[in-house]
Amino acid sequence: MLGKIRRSLRARYAAMMLKKALYGDEDGARGQCCSPAVTAERADASRRPDYIDDQTSSGIASFRLGALRADRNACEVIALYNALAREGKDPDLGGLMRHFSRLRHGAVLFGLFGVAPWALERYLVRSGVPARLYPYEAFRGGGTDALLSRLGCGCAILTFWWSESSWHIHTVMAERLNDCFVVHNFDPWRGRDTVRVSSLDALAGEYGMDMISLIAVGLYAPAN
Fold first, then answer.
1. What is the pTM assigned to this prediction?
2. Could you report the per-residue pLDDT of 21-66, keeping only the tens digit for each?
3. Rounded Cα–Cα distance for residues 128 and 43 (Å)
4. What digits encode the pLDDT tens for the residues 102-136?
């Protein structure tokens, strides 16, 4: 019974995200690509951003996202914060929490289930960061790395179930550094704040993750 409910929810969720990815939202926001000049400018930045790697810290718990303390449900906002920081923006964590606490800005059931992925894509685009949302159909079967390689993309926001039998949905930001990916705020509840993996496909296999969506951030090539 649990499996049937989950499959039904997942199908509805994937259909919603596919529609958003293809047609944008009600205000016309669409995933966009950046020019080579923008790419070079960001890639040449020498300052490493200050990422949030521990959602359980007291500093995060001092915020609220909708109905809950942010250390319990704000992984999407933290992933967005980290992606904005990587792209050279200066994100305000408190402002992001207040923004996404509103239903019209993507809060799911008053924040009880965090923030919808399409809302993260929309915020990135409106902040001047090229981004595109892909539902899991676009990269299932080990296609995560292939998709990012095709786009020439070095950063992604990933949303996933922890396992086939879990109701726990988590969202992280992953960035390519040299020959590996660094995943931020991965699993601070079990002491794995940051993990390094050779590929994102390997990450899913090693930790039993069941991918839901991917937002390619800072696209270097046209997103077809």
1. 0.76
2. 333 444 433 444 333 333 333 333 445 678 999 888 878 878 877 7
3. 16
4. 766 677 766 566 788 999 999 999 999 999 999 87
Placement of tokens 């799911």 in the chain: 108
Pairing of strands 131-135, 68-69: unpaired
Tell me the one-letter amino acid at 106: G
Phi, psi of 186 (to 5 degrees): -70, -55
Angle, nearest 10°, between helix axes 2-23 and 117-126? 20
Nearest to 212 by CA among 157, 131, 147, 130: 157
The amino acid present at 139, given as its one-letter code, is: F
Domains in the chain, start-ordered, CATH in brackets?
2-217 (3.90.70.10)
And the tokens for 39? 């790419």
How many angstroms separate the CA atoms of 55 and 74, rounded? 8
Length of the chain counted residue by residue = 224
21 SS3 class: helix
Whether 16 has a pLDDT exceeding 90, the answer reads no
DSSP symbols for 149-199 = HHHT--EEEEEEESSTT---EEEEEEEEETTEEEEEEEEGGGTEEEEEES-
Per-residue pLDDT tens for 162-174?
A: 765 556 889 999 9
**CA pair distance 25, 37, nearest whole angstrom:** 28
- For residue 175, count CB atoms less than 10 angstroms from its CB and return exposed for 0-12, middle for 13-18, buried for 19 or more: buried
CA dihedral 172, 175, 181, 184 (to 10 degrees): -40
